[in-house]
């Protein structure tokens, strides 16, 4: 199985900050990498697919990059509604696997 | 309205089985693969498997190969996930999720059910 490792597991940031979340795969997954946002008590929401494509309706302050084993989610100009948990997911092969998550908290 | 609506929460005893439903509306179920993901309290996301509603074929992660069963009823646009021999570690919110495109899973899941809480307790 492909292991997905996210870092950091949590971070504190302020409104207006630039936030960077990393995700590393245990083997090359090309660009088969997706990012989700999850708020407490809610289902995850797809933000980024294929490493860098922004899902329809997602604000442009969210961006993704990377290929192979190393990927990054960047949130520019952090907004109050962005405080949530974020998960990466590899969709290169089954079993599909998620990273452990990154909780973005208010500083 | 395009949505996935799941059945309500369940409380089960260890050793019992649970069957969670996921009804699709606003789109044609057979055009998309449907996945099941669970989340234990305070934990991350765990993919359990996928069903092709057209063919009824399934793929499970090894952990659920023996105890899990995904089925579908195309006449009601509903998919089901049954988990047997429940244990306390199966306490979690269970989500169904639609693949974003017809590839099955290559570009993630763009539509999720609201989640079903399954509690396993004696």
Stretches of chain B where pLDDT is under 50 for at least 5 consecutive residues are none
Class per helix and strand makeup of chain A? mainly beta
Q: Which pair of chains has the greatest number of interface residues, and how are they split between the two chains?
A: A-B, 23 and 23 residues
Share of helical residues of chain B: under 10%
Structural summary, described in words:
- The complex is a heterodimer of chains A (107) and B (122).
- By secondary structure, chain A is mainly beta.
- Chain A is 0% helix and 50% strand.
- Chain A contains no helices and 11 strands.
- In chain A, strands 2, 4, 5, 6, 9, 10 and 11 form a 7-stranded mixed sheet that branches. A 4-stranded antiparallel sheet of chain A has the order 1-3-8-7, with no helix packed on it.
- In chain A, a hairpin with a 3-residue loop joins strand 5 (45-49) and strand 6 (53-54).
- The mean pLDDT of chain A is 97.
- With 122 residues, chain B is mainly β.
- Chain B has no helices and 11 strands.
- Chain B has strands at residues 3-6, 10-12, 18-25, 34-39, 46-51, 58-60, 68-73, 78-83, 92-99, 109-112, 116-120.
- In chain B, strands 2, 4, 5, 6, 9, 10 and 11 form a 7-stranded mixed sheet that branches.
- The termini of chain B are far apart.
- The relative contact order of chain B is 0.31.
- At the A-B interface, strand 4, strand 5 and strand 10 of A face strand 5 and strand 10 of B.
């Amino acid at each position: 199985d492909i292991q997905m490792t996210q870092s950091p597991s949590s971070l504190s940031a302020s409104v207006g900050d630039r936030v960077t979340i990393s995700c590393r795969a245990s083997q090359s997954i090309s660009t088969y990498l997706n990012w989700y946002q999850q708020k407490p008590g809610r289902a995850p929401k797809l933000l980024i697919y294929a490493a860098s494509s922004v899902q329809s309706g997602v604000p442009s302050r969210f961006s993704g990059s990377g290929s192979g084993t190393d990927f990054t989610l960047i949130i520019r100009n952090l907004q109050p509604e962005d405080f949530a948990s974020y998960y990466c997911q590899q969709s290169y092969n089954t079993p599909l696997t998620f990273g452990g998550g990154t909780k973005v908290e208010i500083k | 309205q395009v949505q996935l609506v799941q059945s309500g929460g369940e409380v089960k005893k260890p050793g019992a089985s649970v069957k969670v439903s996921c009804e699709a509306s606003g789109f044609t179920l057979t055009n998309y693969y449907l996945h099941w993901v669970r989340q234990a309290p305070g934990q991350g996301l765990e993919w359990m498997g996928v069903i092709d509603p057209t063919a009824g074929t399934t793929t499970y992660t090894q952990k659920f190969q023996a105890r899990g069963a995904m089925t579908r009823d195309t006449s009601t646009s509903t998919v089901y996930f049954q988990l047997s021999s429940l244990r306390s570690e199966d306490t979690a919110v269970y989500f169904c999720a639609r693949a974003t495109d017809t590839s099955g899973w290559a570009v993630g899941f763009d539509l999720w059910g609201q989640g079903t809480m399954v509690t396993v307790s004696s």
